[in-house]
Amino acid sequence: MHLQQSIDVTDVPFKEPVLNIKSEKIGSATITTLVEPPISPYFSVYKWDVAGELSLTRDQRPYVLASVIAGAGTLTVDKQNYAIKKGTNFILPHDVTDWKLVGKLSLVVSNPE
C-alpha cells in the first residue's frame, strides 16, 4: 500500500466501529453476519456453523472464499464430493451457483461487495 492510501484508511483518534452482528438459522446450521457494508465497503464476512447439512445458492457476488476453522465434513459441488476439515481453504468461483456442506464444522466465509 502506498503512504497516502494508508493515511486514507486510518482513523485518528481511533473510532470503534458499530458492528451489527446477526444470526440466521437455516435448518440445522447457523449463519452469523460479522461484517458487511457500510462497516466494510469491500467485503462481507460470515461465520457458518454447520451441524448436519447446509445447502446454499450463490447470490450476485463473483465468488465465495471459505476457511474451515473447526470440525470436518464434505463439500458437494456439481455432484462431486470434497472432504474438508479444519485448515481447509477453498474458493467457490462465479460458475458455482449452488453447493452443499455436510458434517459438523465451522467456517469463516467472505465475499466481495
Automatic annotation (TrEMBL):
Alphabetical list of SUPFAM superfamilies matching this protein: RmlC-like cupins
Protein name: Phosphohexomutase
The species this protein was found in: Liquorilactobacillus vini DSM 20605
Parts of the chain that traverse the membrane: none
Domain Mannose-6-phosphate isomerase cupin: 38-111
